[in-house]
Amino acid sequence: MKFIFATTEPNKVIATIQSRCQRFDFSNISPKVIAEQLKTILGKEEIPYEDDLILPVARMANGSMRDALSLLDRLISTGVQPLTAQLLEDFLGRPNAEKIHRLIERIADNDAAGTLTAIEDLVCTGLGEIQIVDAVVESMRDLLVIRSAGVDTDLLILTADQKEKAGALAKRFDAAALIYNITALEKLRWTIKNSETPRALLDASLLRFTLNEHFMNVDELMGRTQSASPAVKKKLLTEDRPAPKPAAPPIRHEDEPPPTEELPLLSEPKAPAAPADLMEGWPEILDVIRTKLGNGTAGLLNGSTPRELKGDTLVIDFPPMGGMQKHMCESNGRADQIASVLSRHLGRTVRVKFDLITASSTDGTGAPPKSNVPKRYEIVNDAAVKIVLVGLDATITGIEEDQ
């Protein structure tokens, strides 16, 4: 006599029983295999069906052949022939794929009114808010797979017509936007369960996607800035930046706009910069280092600030907790690499020296060191701020800090 124990939660079987058993783990069956088996069964039973029906049923089974056969039995029991994808909506409550596709298209179009209309259209078919969220997540997951692995990947379980439509729609999103949308919808799903106003939450969340231009990543935004017309660049460089006084180094005032369009000129050699210029342009210099040496080296310099350029030596300070960053910048030849990039940027040969700020450090007069970049410089060099300034042709007139 043989006893066979079956469970979906083997972790709950105590060790004294597991040690006396032979364990066999069964993995989920892929939707493609389930779909082929369903076609074989329908063929043997001589039951007519449409191809658009099979893949959705296979996906709804979640890797279980038993569940797939149960779903198929429910469709056959309706007596409708041939079996069509419409039966999934009428008898199994599956959202209409075309309506979900239309909803995501309205989001891609930044069409707020169209998004609300598409949601209303789905709700009128009898779908609940959670069902709509699940369907949108599933569709956006397909778009994410296309953006990441291409439309011909085996990870995509769609018909040829569905792949063509999804491929065209995926081009209108970037991977970062899709990742954000999916994670936000997953959080929304759990919130809706405990909310007395689930429809309002659904409308607000999908409108947020619609009105935020796909949450483009910083690289794409900066690319748009750098591709601005020459006329705009010339205006920003000549009109927004006052000429330096001949007898003294340039002094930047609070009402002076940031050097919005200097990014395209960073790679060009220029005259030796004064410490104030280095402090102001340090975030942009880090972008040059990131381009030349990679994210790893640039990441080590996060939080650092240039203190002084004395002769051919540039002293770079790290915050008190940056000891490890300082050590790594000094090892494996990184200091020479950083110095090489800075030399090309400044138009002169420099070497770098790294220092660590301590609580007791002073500038020789008893005052604390002035090596930290003022908060204003962080604000005016922020990528999002620059995009607003360029897009609106705006000028910063003042910066106020909330208390």
Number of domains: 3
CATH superfamily of the largest domain: DnaA, N-terminal domain
How do the strands line up in the largest sheet? 1-2-3
- List how many beta strands DSSP finds: 3
Instruction: Estimate what percentage of residues fall within beta strands.
Output: under 5%
CATH class of the largest domain: Alpha Beta
Q: What oligomeric state best describes the polypeptide chains here? A: single chain
The low-confidence parts are: 228-256, 259-274, 362-373
Tell me, rounded to a whole number, the average pLDDT: 76
User: Mind telling me the C-alpha Rg?
Assistant: 30 Å
Q: Distance between termini?
A: 78 Å
Instruction: Describe the global form.
Output: elongated
Largest sheet: 3 strands, mixed
User: The CATH topology of the largest domain is what?
Assistant: GMP Synthetase, Chain A, domain 3
- SSE order: HHHHHHHHHHHHHHHEEHHEHH
- Judged by helices, strands and strand pairing, the structural class is mainly alpha
Put simply, the count of helices is: 19
Q: Based on the coordinates given, report the CATH architecture of the largest domain.
A: 2-Layer Sandwich
Give the proportion of residues in helices.
40-55%
